[in-house]
Amino acid sequence: MENILVVGATGTTGKKVVSLLKASQYFEPVAMVRKESQVDEFLVQDIKTVVGDLTEDVSHTVLDVDKIVFAAGSGGENVVQVDQEGAKKIIDAAKAGGIRKFVMLSSMGADQPGKVPALKEYLVAKQNADEYLQASAVPYVIIRPGSLTNEKGTGRIQMANSLDNQGSISREDVAKVLTKALNDDGPINEVFEIIAGNDLISWD
């Protein structure tokens, strides 16, 4: 069993990732929470936790961890400190800790932030975090979904290194992609854009 640190475990998508990992026979989730008061939510499910704040030192959070899923976000309130600099802190810790794979939840449009003025600050933060990860020498997979919905997942997506069309995708299906990307036979050092589609979630 590999220990998977889920950064952003209390978020809507992060919780789904934790549940999928808990149900897996290969992975053991380690839920990273910001406050001690959030620990019990996971302990009652027999899920390991670690307390860490992305605005502070997080080097301790990667101890005894094999791989990382970064699904944290500030919800637009503190994008530079959390979505950008917080991600960089986890990447630095991953590099120092010899983490074997880092799966980053990014956003479609992070490669061209100026195209969506309303989300420019957020997308620039995501772009900077993505580029920092790509330059870090930590093995990575960057997943850039379209608009996130809370609809039930279908298990089917459209995925490519770059998609011409915008679209939406359920958080449930995004969580499935993030979890599948952890597999050793999955991609390494690649970026994928994903939206709802007709193809089964697979790297084949």
TrEMBL record:
CDD domains: SDR_a5 (cd05243)
InterPro entries: NAD(P)-bd_dom, NAD(P)-bd_dom_sf
Domain named NAD(P)-binding: residues: 8-185
A Pfam family reported for this protein in Swiss-Prot or TrEMBL: NAD_binding_10
Source superkingdom: Bacteria
Protein name: SDR family oxidoreductase
Native organism taxonomy: Bacteria, Pseudomonadati, Bacteroidota, Flavobacteriia, Flavobacteriales
